[in-house]
Amino acid sequence: EIVLTQSPGTLSLSPGERVTLSCRASQSVSSTKLAWYQQKPGQAPRLLIYGASSRATGIPDRFSGSGSGADFSLTISRLEPEDCAVYYCQQLGSPPWTFGQGTKVEIK
Amino acid sequence: EVQLVESGGDLVKPGGSLTLSCAVSGFTVIYAWMTWVRQIPGKGLEYVGHIRSRPDGGTADYAAPVKGRFAISRDDSKNILYLQMNSLRTDDTAVYFCTKNTVSGLDDWGQGTLVTVSS
Known about the structure:
heterodimer, A: mainly beta, 10 strands
């Protein structure tokens, strides 16, 4: 089973700041099979990024994904108040399709 | 418009069984890869299992904690996805989400249904 480790656990930043979230895999993951999700309180998760770097439909361009092999990242170029959420990475390359434990982004 | 609506969540005793349903609209379930994900309230997301589309073989894979106890199936005539859960344990307590796959992500989610396993 591929273990995904996300860091940091929690971030507290001001609006307008740039934030980068990390997702590290215990073994190499196909970059076409790495996704990022955003989950706000009381809501189902929403797909942000698929294939490591492609934005899902309707996702603002301040969200971007990058990486390959075992190291991936999600960047929010200019933090907005509505970006307050928990962000998860997931690999869909090797069953079981595992999730990272999540990074919570708080707005100061 | 794609919609996924889960139902069937309930309070069940340890060792009991429960079947969750996911009624879908806006696409045909037989041609979609579908995944169940669960989340203990206040905790992270956990992959439960997925089923391939009929053209891709229709087989399912499961996470280790549920393998042999849970089974994913479809009713193609009703366009419904199921999660049959047997030998339930207290650590199966969670909100269960039904999702539709793209090639490399879960792009549509239901609202979730709560399963509580407790004596």
